[in-house]
Amino acid sequence: MAQGVCVITEFREGAFRRVSFEIASEGRRLADELGEPLLAIALGAGIESLAAGLGNYGVDKVYVVDDPKLEDYRAEIYVPAAAEVLKSLDPKVILTAASVDGKDFSARLAARLGAGLATDCTELKMEGGSLKAKRPMYAGKAFAWYEWSDGSWPQMASCRPNVMDCLAPDTSKNAEVEKAQVEVAEGNETQVLNIEKDAGGKIDLTEAEIIVSGGRGMKGPENFAMLEELATLLGGTVGASRSAVDSGWRPHADQVGQTGKVVTPTLYIACGISGAIQHLAGMGSSKYIVAVNKDPEAPIFSKADYGVVEDLFNFMPVFIEEVKTLKSTC
Ligand SMILES: Cc1cc2nc3c(=O)[nH]c(=O)nc-3n(C[C@H](O)[C@H](O)[C@H](O)COP(=O)(O)OP(=O)(O)OC[C@H]3O[C@@H](n4cnc5c(N)ncnc54)[C@H](O)[C@@H]3O)c2cc1C
Prior knowledge:
Layout: E1 5-8, E2 11-12, E3 15-16, H1 18-34, E4 38-44, H2 48-51, E5 61-66, H3 75-89, E6 93-97, H4 100-113, E7 116-121, E8 123-127, E9 130-137, E10 142-147, E11 155-159, E12 176-179, E13 210-214, H5 224-234, E14 237-240, H6 242-246, E15 267-271, H7 277-283, E16 288-293, H8 300-303, E17 306-309, H9 312-329
Parallel strand pairs: 1-4, 1-6, 4-5, 5-12, 6-11, 7-11, 13-14, 13-15, 15-16, 16-17
Antiparallel strand pairs: 2-3, 8-9, 9-10
Helix pairs in contact: 3-4, 5-9
The site of flavin-adenine dinucleotide has 28 residues, from α6, α7, β16 and α9.
């Protein structure tokens, strides 16, 4: 009989990705609503010794698949391995990350399990013993609640990174760890030849807590140095609107929006960005939005928590100096 909630973690370069703790925290909440256990499946290479730590985020028991072949995400080995473990666990609810790899993984896994999948969810709850999932539609213009109408298990949801609250880690709690009895396939279909990292070791926009973004109002690529300086001071990273990218001022990897990256930082500072719907689609779920724009009618102000109506070339240098002063006195 189906029981419990199961989260499938993401592991990269020897550490769980933050989204794993977010889905574990969300899973804990749902498991408590059901009054049932929270399980996790951790797949990766060299993952076993870290698995118990998922207990800090509310996981009761972790099933580990630790294999050198799982060093990099490859659908043809990750999906069957996870599906095999899930078959024996038979959970009611499965949560995954709607990260770049997670989107690919979740869709394939749902198809293999014959499960209904709500993708890129921003809120979940149990209602009448069944999962309800909220997800953005029409580039974030509207939200819809989804339910699994036939009531069958498993009900599966992938969760948008940086949206769901993470529990404060309780280091006194460790999860029980069990090696899953799974044969990891050779997976000769694809090979990861090389992973190209940003030369400057830039924080991934989708993982960043703080983003300082610039648009056409920046007037040219050289002025992004100002945003780089502020981002470094704040421990964040730099993003851009499509106009800035199309103008060749920033690489495409920096683009935030409908055809760029969907980001959900705690703080998003938009400088010289008008706030077109396609841009808002990428950053509208940020926790706090600060907009700097000389046009008081700019649409970005309707989304912003704090607005600065000013020429950014007057405001930003003063603001950066203030941040420096604050940092030196803290
Ligand atoms: C299918 C499709 C997909 C798209 N995808 C994306 C996407 O992923 N991401 C994205 O960003 N856009 C996307 N766009 C483009 C989007 O519609 C806008 O054109 C774009 O976001 C505008 O960028 P911007 O705000 O930098 O420029 P603008 O709209 O030109 O705004 C510049 C802003 O800077 C302000 N400004 C100018 N000078 C100063 C100054 N000195 N000080 C302060 N403020 C100043 C102006 O008042 C203005 O509000 C897409 C469009 C389409 C059709």
